[in-house]
Design a protein that fits this description.
Layout: H1 3-58
Length: 69
């Protein structure tokens, strides 16, 4: 084999490793996006529950200042 063919083979090998690495990175990015979406949904649900609890307790808490103020 000539030097040129060896260089081309080396570049093709490097390219295949890079393609594999990019596919792995893409898989990680997709999994992270799914996790972020799940976390956003949980935060929204918890925020709504907290708002409901806060609204239900609002009637029990007097809105006036304590006598020592």
């Amino acid at each position: 084999m000539s030097v040129e063919n060896e260089r081309i083979d080396a570049l093709e090998i490097k390219m295949s490793y890079l393609e594999d690495f990019m596919n792995q990175i893409q898989g990680v990015a997709v999994e992270q996006a799914k996790t972020i979406d799940k976390l956003k949904a949980e935060i929204k649900m918890m925020s709504e529950k907290l708002r409901d609890v806060s609204d239900s307790l609002e009637g029990d808490i007097p809105s006036r200042k304590p006598p020592h103020y």
